[in-house]
Amino acid sequence: MTLLRQPANWWRENRLALLASITAMFILLFTIGGAVGIANAATKPAAADDGVKGQTFTIATDTTWAPFEFQRDGELRGIDIDLIHAVAEDQGFDVKIDVLGFDGALAAVTAGQADAVMAGMSITKERQKTFDFSNPYFDSGIQMAIASDDTSITGYEDLEESPSRPRPALRATPSPRTSARSSASRSPASRTPPTRTTT
């Protein structure tokens, strides 16, 4: 009988601590399991959006900016060309690339004749009213060149034209291509169907 009393006494003395420990283990187990499930869902690659899968998007570009986009032997090449093909493959859509020049590419997207521009473009507040931009993926900085004997231009502020200051003979303004490489598509208000830009 003594053998039966010892476990019963132990249970009476320790049951609250034991039940609290078991409860804490279940709470910990469910918390860790939930966190692992959330982490797996967050790190799992997103499946192709059924809205773009199987579609063909027209991408307008300018092929004068090697190594990003250029033509060699009649073939489109460059970082941007490889990038848009990789995104299309990953997301399950096809691309048709139209070489229109920079201004033509912007006009085509604005007019709805192309779905996106794949070219370097400075991201400005004015352009963001019309275009959605990808995250910048290359920053070349702003550059200008001045003749070595020209002392009238010492900084960007000297390039501003005013009635008292005529335009300098060499006009070197920041190009829309010098700030950041990014892709652009029409803004959500003007875009149908939705398009994707690279990220």
UniProtKB/TrEMBL annotation:
Protein's recorded name: Solute-binding protein family 3/N-terminal domain-containing protein
Keywords on record: Signal
Higher taxonomy: Bacteria, Bacillati, Actinomycetota, Actinomycetes, Micrococcales
Positions of the Solute-binding protein family 3/N-terminal domain: 58-153
Composition bias, Low complexity: 171-199
InterPro entries on file: Solute-binding_3/MltF_N
Segments for region (Disordered): 154-199
Keyword Cytoplasm annotated: no
A Pfam family the protein falls into: SBP_bac_3
